[in-house]
Design goal:
- It comes from Alkalilimnicola ehrlichii.
- This protein has 221 residues and is mostly helical.
- It has 2 domains: 57 residues, Homeodomain-like (Arc Repressor Mutant, subunit A), CATH 1.10.10; 149 residues, Tetracycline Repressor, domain 2 (Orthogonal Bundle).
- Helix content is 75%, strand content 2%.
- It contains 9 helices and 2 strands; from the N terminus they run ββααααααααα.
- It has a two-stranded antiparallel sheet with strand order 1-2.
- A hairpin with a 2-residue loop joins strand 1 and strand 2.
- The termini are far apart.
């Protein structure tokens, strides 16, 4: 008889456990999705193409994702997570110079992250648009998340006397939307601007919001 407490031997294939193989296949599918959707678009990327590029079977695809849209959502979530972390780290790294320096560094970091990862940025900013109501809600939630972060930066600026006290959530949404559209235009090759010029344009939008908010505050006095 076999002792019930005895652990079953872990089955391996080519030196890898079943779980390691599954994780590797999932990662290959995500990489294939990033390359194909980021270059050819979501509509042109079939499950067969994803499986071929990822070197997995259709059966293995459905072990990890119920649909192309679920894979697209996973790519979107990863982009948002990584971009958000870049923005936070940039703000914290420049925060000792004041909230304005930190905010401008954070906006520059977001622009730079998108331009350094054009395929990932295209997936997040272009290919998720109009896919489904569920994907649209995911997009809106991400916009609100970044807008909330901008509002937190604005609150710090208000505490330092740079901005008047106000609710900056809607201003944050406006800034995120404007920045996204500028980056989409740059990714499509339509701006003719260098990376440095794009960074200055995006930080310039925020500086314009600051000046506008200051002007409105003066009018109320």
């Amino acid at each position: 008889m076999t002792d019930a407490n005895t652990a079953r031997p872990v089955r391996k294939y080519r030196g890898q456990t079943t779980e390691q193989l599954k994780a590797e296949r999932r990662e290959r599918l995500l990489q294939a999705g990033e390359e194909l959707i980021g270059s050819d678009g979501y509509g042109a990327t079939s499950i067969d193409r994803l499986c071929s590029a990822g070197r997995v079977s259709t059966r293995h695809f459905y072990e990890h994702f119920s649909s192309r849209e679920e894979l697209l959502g996973a790519l979107f979530d990863a982009f948002i997570r990584d971009a958000f972390n870049e923005v936070l780290q940039a703000f914290e790294g420049s925060g000792q110079e004041g909230a304005l320096a930190g905010t401008l560094a954070a906006l520059t970091a977001f622009a730079r992250f998108c331009m350094n990862n054009p395929e990932r940025a295209r997936i997040a900013l272009v290919e998720t648009v109009g896919v489904s109501p569920a994907m649209e809600e995911k997009r809106r939630a991400a916009i609100r998340q970044f807008a909330g972060l901008v509002a937190q930066f604005a609150d710090k600026l208000a505490a330092e006397g740079v901005l008047p006290e106000a609710d900056y959530q809607l201003s944050g949404i406006a800034l995120v939307g404007a920045s996204n559209e500028l980056l989409v235009e740059w990714l499509s090759g339509g701006t003719g601007l260098s990376r440095e010029q794009m960074e200055r344009r995006i930080t310039g939008i925020f500086q314009a919001i600051i000046k506008g908010s200051q002007a409105i505050a003066r009018e109320k006095v």
